[in-house]
């Protein structure tokens, strides 16, 4: 009874919170209203460069997006019970034209793809409704009914999707609902598919990965209000699609945007707790693979062996995803993300005929699947590893974000394009995940600063902090005669040193010690001449106190309490008995400090793969810092006590020795051997669970193949760059003729006519 009550309360809280979060009413439209402006020349030029970078003649993704189409309404507008528009594809009818100057042509193309909506057959017995919300809803046919996967974000959209399925495939009961992960766009529409009564009666199972409800609560209740508000900005829910497409909203990479309907929740009845766990649901055997810490804290893929179909949840999406989403959510693990994709490939890749997911469209054919999953994993692995490399080389978060660029081979792949996530934001996410901060590059200095300040104070007044040293001065003071003569002598000395002038109190032991501590060797001679008893003062240990004091702060003849600048000035003014050797030693300290820091920085960047590029702001900044920081060290060490400078030099030398060892070690590391050792550890754990071993190819060989492929295609690519823009304009005109503007037929016609033209070209 208690559990039922708790579940009911959780359900109510989630439903209420997500209804608020999913609504854009929290932000007034007036707050987001801004006068649209034409594209600047900079924007126009930047967009034109995209045409040169990417192959717009490649229509493979259009073929995938239209494959298996069963039905699509001419218009799609979904309303709630109050008549409010919660989802529309009709407003995007302008997409048949070329991208305007204000729109990135690559994002425009992605919007065209996401505008392809309707009911599709993935493979025999598996169907998807796409384009009815930000995510896809999947229907798997069982013996007696449907297994529904990820019932969209809004109840209204889920109801419309189910109606489309029933209209074209017949009416069957829903036997189970599967939540792939703990984000609201994958379960918020559940009450548009089933009811709480269906679940309570046992007629419907609700299946989710381990920890699903905990993380759903964490994301949608604890920080729900803030995340809902931020999501409104991230997804542009208040932006309207303009009639001509020159202003307003476009797709967000993983869909057309967020629906604005009501959200709901029903608690899971079955949690998947381990990879390899199998369940037969309405006659369909499904094998689950847990992928925690990837796109969501609780997430899972699954395999349907009878269909050779691999479900990748949101771990593969047909676009670069976020390691940190701007709406808020936990930072994701790029390394784990890549490893789980490769684990899926190792477990099921050889058998898979189709890979499908909760966003965008499936991919068919084993060779295509292998490439699709490998490239997707490679992107997250690359961002993760490159960021860590630069972190360890001492670069800051912003510097790294500006430095990392995907390899050309990955940058030009359509399904790894930066529509939803970006390389720069993802690198910042990696930076954050590993416990660094925006001050990370200054961390060694920040750690040293308290030590330097303390050392500075101690060196300038050692007797105040070191009792054994203070004892020597107390011995000297104890041999001073009392009386007016002594007072006058001290007053003159104090005035000469500009300490306290006439207010000097020789009866205050601390004040007298402070004065004596500033004496040069010549001043000690004068002092002893004035007070002969002082020269005879001997400590309890039998050591002459004056001689001990003179030698105490001497380092190879150099007074470490003096600044190098002061020593050099005293040399030229013939004060304090400063010799040429002492002056040279004082001058050497700041010079050595600057040189040692410069060499230390050089060693830290020795393994840096990013070339110094004058056009790269981060690279230019780092080049300037590598020059200015050693110069600052020289300046500071001139101004600080020589003892501080000696500490600075010693620390830099230690860093140099440490970095030489690190570089030597890294040069000897074989990455393939390291990867293989990690794989062996993983396989030992998997063997204990009765799972098949993970297989990963040779990294160097994979990179070599990628380089060879890029080299072979470079000549052809350069030719395309010159004519791509013209070809795009001709293609759009050709592909869309005889088709209703804004219709799905125009896009389907695009694929058909492309194939037709290609066939004609082959015959010639």
Structure description:
This protein has 764 residues and is α+β, with helices and mostly antiparallel strands. It has three domains: 2-31 and 38-433, Metallo-beta-lactamase, Chain A, CATH 3.60.15.30; 449-552, no CATH class; 681-763, no CATH class. It is 52% helix and 9% strand. Strands 1-4-5-6-7-8-9-10 form an eight-stranded mixed sheet, with helices on one face. A six-stranded mixed sheet has the order 11-12-13-14-15-16, with helices on one face. Helix 1 runs parallel beside helix 8 and helix 23 packs antiparallel against helix 24 (617-639). The longest helix has 37 residues, at 699-735. The protein starts with a helix and ends with a helix. The relative contact order is 0.08. The model is unreliable at 1-32, 437-441 and 609-615 (pLDDT under 50).
SSE layout and pairing:
Elements (H helix, E strand, L loop, with lengths): L1 H21 L18 H13 L6 H7 L2 E3 L5 E3 L5 E4 L16 H10 L3 E6 L2 E5 L6 E5 L4 E4 L5 H15 L4 E5 L17 H5 L4 E5 L2 H11 L1 H11 L35 E3 L5 E4 L2 E7 L9 E5 L4 E3 L22 H16 L4 E3 L6 E2 L1 H27 L4 H7 L4 H4 L11 H11 L9 H18 L1 H4 L1 H12 L5 H13 L12 H9 L3 H10 L1 H4 L9 H8 L1 E2 L2 E2 L4 H9 L7 H25 L12 H23 L2 H27 L2 H18 L10 H37 L8 H20 L1
Parallel strand pairs: 7-8, 8-9, 9-10, 14-15
Antiparallel strand pairs: 1-4, 2-3, 4-5, 5-6, 6-7, 11-12, 12-13, 13-14, 15-16, 17-18
């Amino acid at each position: 009874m208690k559990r039922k009550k708790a579940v009911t309360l959780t359900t109510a809280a989630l439903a209420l919170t997500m209804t608020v979060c999913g609504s854009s009413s929290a932000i007034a439209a007036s707050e987001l209203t801004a006068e649209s402006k034409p594209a600047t020349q900079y924007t126009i030029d930047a967009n034109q460069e995209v045409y040169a970078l990417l192959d717009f003649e490649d229509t493979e993704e259009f073929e995938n997006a239209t494959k298996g189409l069963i039905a699509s309404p001419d218009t799609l507008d979904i309303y709630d019970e109050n008549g409010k528009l919660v989802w529309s594809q009709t407003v995007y009818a302008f997409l048949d034209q070329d991208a305007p100057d204000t729109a990135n042509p690559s994002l425009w193309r992605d919007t065209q793809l996401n505008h392809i909506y309707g009911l599709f057959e993935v493979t025999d017995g598996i169907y998807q409704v796409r384009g009815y919300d930000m995510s896809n809803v999947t229907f798997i046919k069982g013996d007696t009914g449907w297994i529904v996967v990820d019932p969209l974000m809004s109840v209204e959209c889920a109801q419309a999707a189910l109606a489309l399925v029933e209209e074209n495939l017949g009416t069957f009961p829903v036997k189970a609902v599967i939540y792939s992960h703990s984000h609201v766009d994958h379960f918020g529409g559940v009450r548009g598919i089933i009811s709480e009564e269906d679940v309570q009666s046992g007629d419907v199972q609700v299946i989710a990965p381990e920890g699903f409800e905990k993380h759903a609560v964490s994301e949608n209740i604890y920080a729900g209000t803030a995340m809902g508000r931020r999501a409104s900005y991230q997804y542009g829910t208040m932006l309207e699609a303009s009639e001509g497409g020159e202003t307003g909203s476009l797709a967000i990479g993983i869909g057309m945007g967020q629906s604005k309907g009501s959200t709901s929740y029903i608690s899971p009845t079955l949690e998947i707790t381990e990879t390899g766990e199998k369940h037969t649901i309405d006659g369909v055997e499904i094998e689950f693979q847990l992928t925690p810490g990837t796109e969501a804290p609780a997430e899972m893929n699954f395999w349907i062996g009878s269909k050779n179909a691999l479900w990748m949840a949101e771990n593969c999406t047909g676009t670069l995803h976020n390691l940190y989403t701007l709406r808020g959510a936990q930072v994701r693990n790029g390394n784990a993300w890549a490893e789980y994709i490769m684990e899926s490939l190792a477990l099921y890749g050889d058998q898979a005929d189709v890979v499908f997911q909760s966003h965008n469209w499936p991919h068919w054919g084993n060779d295509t699947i292998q490439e699709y999953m490998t490239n997707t994993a490679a992107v997250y692995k690359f961002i993760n590893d490159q960021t860590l490399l630069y972190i360890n080389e001492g670069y800051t978060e912003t510097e790294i974000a500006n430095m990392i660029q995907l390899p050309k081979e990955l940058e030009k792949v359509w399904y790894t394009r930066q529509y939803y996530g970006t390389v720069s934001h993802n690198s910042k996410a990696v930076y954050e995940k590993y416990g660094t901060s925006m001050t990370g590059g200054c961390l060694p200095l920040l750690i040293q600063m308290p030590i330097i300040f303390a050392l500075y104070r101690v060196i300038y007044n050692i007797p105040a902090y070191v009792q054994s040293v203070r004892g020597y001065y107390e011995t000297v003071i104890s041999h001073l005669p009392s009386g007016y003569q002594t007072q006058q002598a001290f007053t003159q000395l104090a005035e000469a040193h500009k300490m306290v002038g006439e207010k000097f109190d020789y009866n205050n032991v601390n004040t007298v010690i402070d004065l004596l501590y500033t004496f040069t060797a010549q001043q000690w001679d004068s002092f002893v001449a004035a007070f002969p008893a002082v020269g005879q003062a001997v400590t309890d240990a039998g050591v002459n106190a004056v001689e001990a004091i003179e030698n105490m702060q001497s380092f190879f003849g150099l007074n470490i309490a003096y600044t190098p600048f002061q020593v050099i000035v005293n040399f030229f003014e013939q004060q304090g008995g400063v010799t040429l050797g002492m002056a040279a030693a004082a001058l050497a300290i700041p010079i050595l400090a600057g040189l040692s820091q410069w060499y230390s920085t050089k060693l830290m960047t020795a393994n840096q793969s990013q070339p110094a590029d004058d056009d790269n702001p981060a690279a230019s900044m780092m080049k300037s810092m590598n020059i200015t920081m050693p110069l600052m060290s020289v300046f500071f060490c001139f101004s600080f006590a020589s003892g501080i400078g000696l500490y600075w030099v010693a620390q830099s030398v230690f860093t140099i020795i440490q970095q030489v060892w690190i570089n030597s070690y890294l040069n000897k590391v074989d990455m393939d051997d390291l990867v293989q050792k990690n794989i062996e550890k993983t396989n030992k754990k998997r063997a204990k669970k009765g799972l098949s071993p993970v297989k990963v190819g040779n990294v160097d060989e994979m990179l070599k193949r990628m380089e060879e492929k890029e080299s072979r295609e470079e000549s052809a690519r350069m030719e395309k760059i010159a004519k791509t823009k013209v070809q795009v304009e001709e293609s759009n005109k050709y592909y869309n003729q005889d088709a209703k503007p804004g219709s799905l037929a125009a896009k389907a016609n695009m694929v058909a006519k492309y194939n037709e033209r290609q066939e004609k070209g082959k015959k010639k």
